[in-house]
What does this fold into?
Amino acid sequence: MSMAAHPQKAIACGVNSSAENLKDGKNENCRVYTVKEDKIYPSNTQSTLELDSTEDDFQKVTVFSPTGSLLAVAGTHDLSVLHYPSLSLAASPIHIDKGEIYDATFSSSTLVVATTVNLLVYALPPSDADAKRAKAYGKKKESTLAKLELLKTIDRPTLPGKDAGSSFRAARYHPHDEKVLYTVLNTVPPRTRTKSSPRRAFRRGRSRECASIQRT
It folds into this structure.
């Protein structure tokens, strides 16, 4: 399960439907609740993960864009970007064949998806208002959703030592400087005949001008 707070007293979270509903192919995993006078009320739902009773996936990522107009939700291999508050799809869902999705973060113009093996940088889709205007003028068919444009792929860093490895676990844009992206990686020490080295974690900061890795 995951959860995110909207600036205007709303909460988005991931909760799978009951096993009975899953058997019927119904899974309203993305749920939005409004907060009024210290009480929480159901507001809207959307299905982004198609599961059955034998599958064990869940909405592990829930992230709002800085303006609150977009919502990114993801399971292990599938991510959807939704308009808020309608929860309609803003673009075609993303399916990840390599690695697992662990996090996502928005800037004003991009979405970075952190998988275990890389960072995927996508351009943001048009706003909900722009999409409605385009549909009204016949520029976009109702059944057609644009694909998110992949701008860049950043592979995980190569660490010294034989059999050493790493995997991304989290990513966040700097709240006041979109040129800076912070990431957290888990590492696996190289195999040796002596006592194994301690596991290490790294915080990675990236900008347009430079990239640095610091031990934490």
The two ends are 27 Å apart (CA to CA). Residues 156-216 form one domain. Confidence is low (pLDDT under 50) at residues 207-216. The chain has two domains: 3-155, 156-216.
